[in-house]
Amino acid sequence: MKRKHGMALLIILTMATTSLFSFADTAKQITDDLNAKKAEQKKLTNEINKVKKQETQVLAKIQSLEGEIDRSEGEIETLKNKISNTENRISTAIHNIEVAEQNIGHKQDVMGERVNIMYRNGNIGYAEVLLNSKSLTDLLTNLDMVKKIVNHDVELLKEMEAQKAIIEEEKMTLENQKKQLVSLKASVEEKQEKLVVSRGEQEKYRKDLAQNKVELEKMLDQNKKDADNLTNKLRSLQSSSAYVGGVLQWPTPGYTNITSPFGNRIHPILKTKKFHTGIDIGAPNGKNVIAAGAGKVITAGTLGSYGKAVIIDHGGGIMTLYAHNSKLLVSNGDTVTSGQVIALIGSTGASTGPHLHFEVRKNGQYVDPIPYLKGK
């Protein structure tokens, strides 16, 4: 009979232990998955921020290109007006040259006719001037007048030829200016075409970035949903699990000396009899403090006489507290795994030296941590 009872007890303990390790393994896997999701969230957020920065840069580039395109369009319009004005001036010059040529031709015809008449008349013309002259003075005056008329015609013809030459030179200058303007206009138009192509490329890049951002944001949203599901699953697992003693890890690896046990004692500072709500474990300043089990950090900060402290909810009504730390390595809301370093040994708060004050609370009540801890 005793053997049967012993066997039954062994089976119960084995089942309890198996259930316990199964829970721990499952919780650890969920926690690992959750941490992986959080790491992925951080990476995705960084990628999204990077894309947003690139979008801002591309938009600025597009705006700059559009400004250059607008300026080039203004330049082209100005050059068109200058070319049109130059063409009008060239047309005017051509017309003036034609008029000058006509005037020169007409004057040449008149002078030619006059010379022919004088040539045909020979000395008679001079005889007529002599006969018609009333005196020697009158004769000389008449001869001088004839000479002046001829000289005037010659000078006038020279002036006309010179004016024509000036107009032709002006026309040539205007034609050269037109060539330069046309060449400059072609150069600006070529530059504008390149700017338009570049703007098109940047627009395409911007659209690609926008699409990439949409995809990344979808991935981030899905990741957050997955993380929420894992968090809910972990909470459900923790709340539904029946806590069994002896499953918490020793919180100070390598340091097992209990300097003050759980229960009544003389307070080291107040020197009065007070109930000690946990155990004190002596350890050097700066050594690691680890999470005794997987769970969620519900408090991480300075808690009065506890100094810098961390409280972890492990589910099943079990919470652990780690006090007097020199530095905290976790924050409120963090999900931690069993054995994860959460703080460093210190002597903050009401403390006489570096050590860890460790508590276990079950359903809000202080309990002796020793039965809940695995072997040291």
Automatic annotation (TrEMBL):
<dbReference type="Pfam" id="PF24568">
    <property type="entry name" value="CC_PcsB"/>
</dbReference>
<dbReference type="Pfam" id="PF01551">
    <property type="entry name" value="Peptidase_M23"/>
</dbReference>
<feature type="coiled-coil region">
    <location>
        <begin position="157"/>
        <end position="240"/>
    </location>
</feature>
<dbReference type="InterPro" id="IPR050570">
    <property type="entry name" value="Cell_wall_metabolism_enzyme"/>
</dbReference>
<dbReference type="InterPro" id="IPR011055">
    <property type="entry name" value="Dup_hybrid_motif"/>
</dbReference>
<dbReference type="InterPro" id="IPR057309">
    <property type="entry name" value="PcsB_CC"/>
</dbReference>
<protein>
    <submittedName>
        <fullName>Peptidase M23B</fullName>
    </submittedName>
</protein>
<dbReference type="InterPro" id="IPR016047">
    <property type="entry name" value="M23ase_b-sheet_dom"/>
</dbReference>
<feature type="signal peptide">
    <location>
        <begin position="1"/>
        <end position="24"/>
    </location>
</feature>
<keyword id="KW-0175">Coiled coil</keyword>
<feature type="coiled-coil region">
    <location>
        <begin position="27"/>
        <end position="103"/>
    </location>
</feature>
<keyword id="KW-0732">Signal</keyword>
<feature type="domain" description="Peptidoglycan hydrolase PcsB coiled-coil">
    <location>
        <begin position="97"/>
        <end position="169"/>
    </location>
</feature>
<dbReference type="GO" id="GO:0004222">
    <property type="term" value="F:metalloendopeptidase activity"/>
</dbReference>
<feature type="domain" description="M23ase beta-sheet core">
    <location>
        <begin position="274"/>
        <end position="369"/>
    </location>
</feature>
